[in-house]
Amino acid sequence: MMKKNLLSLCLSLSLLTAAPAVVNAAQNDANTAPAIASQTLRNLSWTPLVPPVTQDVTLGMSSAQINQGQIQGAVAAFALPADRGSLEITLTSIATGKTVYAPNVLVLDEQMRPAAFYPSSYFPYEKPGIVSSDRLEGTLKLTPALGQKQIYLLVYTTRNDLDATTQMVNPAKAYAAGVGNAVPDIPDPVARHTPTGTLSLKVTAEQKAGNVMIGQIFPSSAPAEAAPVVVGSTQAPAPAPAAPAKPSEPMLDDSDAWFNESIKKAVKAGDVDKALKLLDEAERLGSKTARKTFIESVKK
């Protein structure tokens, strides 16, 4: 009940002033992903990842394959917990010699419905460093909606990607630049894209909202260049709960201050259910400020 109340309450309190444009962007992103038959998705073996974790994956000819429409070659499938707060996922595709796997990522909700799509252009080339090699790399920030057990991450490449290449930086140039020497005038290698490759995923979790919302929306404080992609269910929210009955007497100032402070602490700790219970109890006892405190705490 609390989970439903959270979504309804947040919508009814006008917390989603930026939501319409963001929702449309998310729908367009998910709709641009190549179609995959639902049975194909359910037949995959999904590797569970429990953060914090770093997982290295070798995609070879014996790996799971999808060859439907634009999708071509080996794929990697992961199941991530949806009850650990926001998930930050750094996906790295490591170049081997003059070849590299160009990853695309499709995020699916608990019902295996497409929720967000990250094309290969989201994973740009990163030149080698002292302890890193040539790679394609990008970071995803996802926030699963309340009530889900897990979400899914499918990594694949496409026919268009296989027709493309990646311009790399000659290791000698990268080393010279790194140590402050003169950069030699030598050609840079070009990596062709292949249907197999080597991936590395680093997954961490934190109890606060991230950039991508899986199922419900809160305002983001991210800068414009990191505008959030909102994904998940676009079904109409449940009707807002009726306002609590007004008590016969107003709440004492000391009690009001205690409830407001407790609501702030609960939201900051990521325990929104507790914050809602405190809000309900405060208003039942006559608080005139608890609702405003809850809204301002969630917006931060």
TrEMBL record:
Top-rank taxon, per record: Bacteria
GO CC terms: periplasmic space
Keyword terms: Signal
Keyword Metal-binding: no
Signal peptide location: 1-25
One GO BP: carbohydrate transport
Region (Disordered): 234-255
Pfam family, one: MalM
Protein name: Maltose operon periplasmic protein
Species the sequence originates in: Erwinia billingiae (strain Eb661)
Gene for this chain: malM
